[in-house]
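note to self: dont lose this again. the chain is below, predicted strucutre after it. 133 aa total, dont forget to put it in the shared folder this time
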Amino acid sequence: MRSWGVLALLFAGIGCDPPCVQDLDLDCAPLYSDLSWDTVHASTIETSCASAGCHSADDAAGDLVLTPAQTAWVALVEPATGAARVLPGDAACSPMIIRTESEAAASLMPPGAPLGEAERCVLRLWVQQGASR
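---
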């Protein structure tokens, strides 16, 4: 019986958290060169995630509202409750990046209309460079 307990401990966390993205491309070509929060929010997050209806004030999927910009930054980086979806300086392990880079259709964000490479690059670089406001 003891060996089952050890196995249970070893596998207890599997499936709970998605793994970090392996070989994340940080030498990519972003959609635009300005990686300030205002530009990243207005040009990528608001247009692809908030206005698409999933993370708007009207339909806060996963209890995440990505408008306006200041509220969105706090929700992603310093939420009052729950885990941060962005880990500044760690793009590969940031849940937002894991979801936008996912190869599994069930966890890919945004669903049905994945971001293009250049848009994903913007998010990766913004997070890797510290996810500043």
